[in-house]
Write a structure and sequence with these properties.
The structure holds two protein chains of two kinds.
Chain A: E1 3-5, H1 6-20, E2 24-28, H2 44-48, E3 53-55, H3 60-72, E4 76-80, H4 91-98, H5 101-104, E5 114-119, H6 134-138, E6 144-146, H7 151-163, E7 168-173, E8 180-182, E9 196-199, E10 204-208, H8 212-227, E11 231-235, E12 238-240, H9 244-254, E13 257-260, H10 269-281, E14 290-292, H11 303-308, H12 313-322
Parallel strand pairs in A: 2-3, 2-4, 4-5, 5-7, 6-7, 10-11, 10-13, 13-14
Antiparallel strand pairs in A: 1-8, 6-12, 9-11
Helix pairs in contact in A: 1-7, 3-4, 8-12, 9-10
Chain B: E1 3-6, E2 16-22, E3 29-30, E4 35-40, E5 45-49, E6 54-59, E7 66-68, E8 72-77, H1 89-98, H2 138-147, H3 165-174, E9 199-201, E10 212-214, H4 218-233, E11 236-244, H5 246-258, H6 265-279, E12 285-288, E13 291-294, E14 300-302, E15 304-306, E16 309-311, E17 314-315, H7 323-339, H8 344-347, E18 352-356, E19 375-388, E20 394-407, H9 413-428
Parallel strand pairs in B: 14-18, 18-19
Antiparallel strand pairs in B: 1-8, 2-4, 2-7, 3-6, 4-5, 6-8, 9-10, 11-20, 12-13, 14-17, 15-16, 19-20
Classes of the chains: A alpha/beta, B alpha+beta.
Chain lengths: ~325, ~425
């Protein structure tokens, strides 16, 4: 299987879907001439022309609004927002329109729109560019939410998102863009709502969201080598729909769960998942469901503070160990 | 046929009791309403009376043993009836079902035996947090339920002593290894109260010399738990005030002339506090779970040192009672405490506490709030002191220091200060107390 970077896998997905379906077009700030702030759209302007690869002014609500309208009119727009922070400018279009239109019009209209954007800290871009807001979109009924953590998932899930008739919030990660991974040749779209078990284990279930799936997997290796604990690492890949069954099956086997996310603790993905686990697997728990989250602060600019504000392997390891003994 | 006598619930907060002394020997006759056994609860020692006639055919809880309420402690049956001596409870239940008895055993039992855990005639070892709740994970609970294991007998190895799945698996597999003291012989049980407290001497000396460890009595354990809880949870602050008791001294002198037993100064303090508590309802309240609870009755507890521990009998509705009535109540309660026959109802329901160490010559001191009450008044000794009066002369007056220790979650500085000022006003003009 060829290996490629996460950003190259996304680029491939866009190219393949644009080749396969001429209704697919992309739009966003600096995606054409500049080839994307993170080079995801490299080469696409040249290949597909400026009718299907459209540079826009800085105007997020309008970018998404054009996406909503053109999707309702029969196109399959993929719009890029430069970071997830900027999506807050477009929340009216995303929450009040894209998510609700299919429901409001009794199914007569659909919004097959994909909103792509990166999230996450670690690059000293400060609190206006570095947050992790998947929980905010998970909150909204009517939106599908994808949080791919590997190159293969990035490609397969983006293809699925473009082919889906529902609005999809497609959350990439700045750290992951340069990470390499194997990607199946001629791979088709993946299914939403299918979690990946990254590593099997019998002692504790660790659910990692977005980039934290990678962190969780590394922590699990250390837990096995240094602490003789076998963690089962699950990457849900999509938060809505959520493959809760895979998580519950694992928790029923290990009797312990740790949820790792980069976002804030309150009202987070982990808070929600902890509630679901205790509701549906209470009698299988041997310890409280634990969460490892980003710090409850705006993302700091200072490098040491920023590093301290999101989870690293040692935090996951500590959280796992604390389920077994007093630390 | 024989019926079980179970550990009775003798106070609201009681979860387990210790058998102190059997008042009837095995084989002896038992009469309904006559003393059967002395039981130590979390609050006091009580004599428990038999509720049926018969013969004490078997004692299941030896003196010194501690059992949860509802657990069988003895069996009463007909003269000559043999105790059913079988090792394990399951077998025993089966046998009694197999026997061609006219009706199921349960229907013969008195109502109290419907409490949980009656199915285990053997005492369960103590476990958990001492509040009756055993700390166990949900999966451990489910497995124990499915396997019919008693959680109380299993040692928890999880964080904070939680019983976890592995402990249940070990208990199911190894049995004896994980089950602690389940079949401990009776002579290893804690020593009974009337005897000297259990002590054990350390083996080697060390720099502190030989170490003697003493088991706490139930009351001492309750005091230590509640005091630690108070200090750990109540953000307390202290207000000090000096009160001129000359008026009270004079009043007491006059009352002595007309009454056999004149009220003590502490009775006057109780009366003054009760009157002031009526005016300051939050001082008569409690902070509980993020809310203030205000009580309609003013029940003043009086701390009494006795039996090597501390008990706080309650003078109920002290604001409604005359000074004489308070004095009589206080005397009766103190006598009962000293004689060891105070009952749990007389030790509960307090909404405020007065603690007086004046008789030991203590000038002033701090006290620990009796949770969940809002405050405690610490009363020092009454002493003649030089005081500058209104006209600038130095005169000898009977002065007394008091300290009000308040829970800042319900009382703020000004609240406590106003209450204390009102107490002083009442004590310095004590005629109102005599009303």
């Amino acid at each position: 299987m060829p290996t490629m970077r996460y950003r190259e896998a996304l680029n491939q997905a866009l190219r393949e879907e644009m080749e396969a379906d001429e209704r697919v077009f992309i739009m966003g700030e600096d995606i054409g001439v500049f080839q994307g702030a993170f080079k995801v759209t490299q080469g696409l302007l040249e290949e597909f022309g400026d009718k299907r690869v459209r540079d826009t002014p800085i105007s997020e609500n309008t970018i998404v609004g054009v996406g909503v309208g053109s999707a309702m009119a029969g196109l399959r727009p993929v719009v890029e927002l430069m970071t997830i922070n900027f999506s807050l400018l477009a929340l009216d279009q995303i929450v009040n329109h894209a998510a609700a239109i299919h429901y409001m019009f009794g199914g007569q209209a659909r919004v097959p729109l994909v909103v792509r954007m990166p999230q996450g800290g670690g690059h000293q871009l400060g609190p206006t560019h570095s947050h992790s807001l998947e929980a905010m979109f998970l909150h909204v009924p009517g939106l599908l939410v994808a949080v791919p953590s590997t190159a293969a998932d990035a490609k397969g899930l983006l293809k699925a998102a473009i082919q889906d008739d529902n609005p999809v919030i497609f959350i990439e990660h700045e750290y992951l863009y340069s990470q390499r991974g194997e990607v199946p040749e001629n791979g088709g779209p993946m299914r939403f709502g299918e979690a990946a078990v990254r590593r099997e284990g019998s002692d504790v279930t660790v659910v990692g969201i977005s980039r934290m799936a990678v962190t969780a997997e590394r922590a699990a290796e250390q837990l096995a080598h240094e602490h003789e604990l076998e963690a089962e690492v699950i990457d849900p890949r999509t938060l809505r729909p959520l493959d809760l069954d895979t998580i519950l099956d694992s928790v029923k086997k290990t009797n312990r769960a740790v949820i790792v996310e980069e976002g804030w603790p309150h009202g987070g993905v982990g808070a929600n998942l902890a509630a679901l686990i205790q509701e549906q697997a209470f009698d299988y728990l041997d310890a409280p469901v634990a969460r490892v989250t980003g710090a409850d602060v705006p993302m700091p600019y200072s490098k040491p503070l920023e590093q301290a504000a999101f989870p690293h392997e040692e935090h996951v390891i500590q959280a796992c160990l604390a389920l077994f003994k007093d630390l | 046929m024989a019926t079980d006598v179970v550990m009775p619930r003798l106070s609201d907060s009681m979860e387990e009791g210790t058998v102190l002394k059997w008042l009837v020997d095995v084989g002896g006759e038992v009469k309904r309403g006559e003393p059967l056994v002395e039981i130590e609860t979390d609050k006091a020692n009580m004599t428990y009376e038999a509720d049926t006639d018969g013969v004490l055919i078997e004692v299941l809880a030896q003196e010194g043993e501690t059992l949860p309420i509802g657990q069988a402690i003895a069996r009463i049956g007909a003269a000559g009836e043999e105790p059913e001596r079988t090792a394990d409870s399951a077998q025993r239940t089966e046998e009694s079902e197999v026997e061609a008895e006219p009706e199921p055993q349960e229907e013969e039992l008195p109502a109290e035996t419907e409490a949980p855990a009656t199915r285990h005639p053997r005492p369960a070892p103590s476990a958990g947090d001492g509040n009756g709740r055993v700390k166990a994970s949900p999966v451990a609970r489910r497995m124990a339920r499915e396997m019919g294991l008693e959680l109380g007998g299993i040692e928890g190895t999880g964080p904070g002593g939680r019983i976890v799945k592995a402990d249940i698996e070990a208990a199911a597999k190894g049995g004896a290894t994980a089950v602690k003291e389940r079949e401990a012989p009776a002579e290893e049980a804690p020593t009974t109260r009337p005897q000297p407290p259990a002590t054990s001497a350390g083996e080697d000396g060390g720099v502190k010399g030989q170490t003697t460890t003493q088991e706490l009595t139930r009351l001492q354990r309750t005091v230590s738990r509640r005091m630690a809880e108070s200090k750990a949870t109540a953000p307390d602050f202290q207000l000090n005030m000096e009160i001129d008791m000359s008026g009270c001294v004079e009043l007491r002198q006059r009352l002595k002339e007309v009454a056999d037993a004149a009220p003590s100064f502490n009775d006057m303090v109780v009366k003054a506090c009760a009157a002031a508590l009526r005016e300051f309802p939050r001082v008569n309240g409690a902070y509980r779970d993020g809310q203030w609870e205000l009580y309609s009755r003013v029940n003043v507890g009086v701390a009494v040192a006795a039996q090597e521990t501390l008990v706080v009998p309650t003078i109920f509705d002290a604001d409604q009672k005359s000074l004489g009535a308070i004095a009589r109540d206080a005397r009766d309660l103190i006598t009962k405490v000293r004689d060891g026959n105070i009952t749990p109802p007389e030790l509960s329901g307090g909404t405020f506490t007065v603690s007086n160490l004046g008789m030991y010559g203590i000038d002033s001191f701090s006290a620990v709030i009796n949770p969940p009450q809002a405050a405690i008044l610490a009363v020092g000794a009454l002493k003649k002191k030089p005081v500058v009066d209104d006209s600038g002369r130095i005169v000898a007056r009977d002065m007394m220091n008091v300290s009000l220790i308040c829970d800042h979650r319900i009382l703020y500085g000004a609240d406590g200060a106003q209450f204390l000022a009102r107490v002083r006003e009442l004590l310095e003009q004590p005629l109102s107390l005599a009303l």
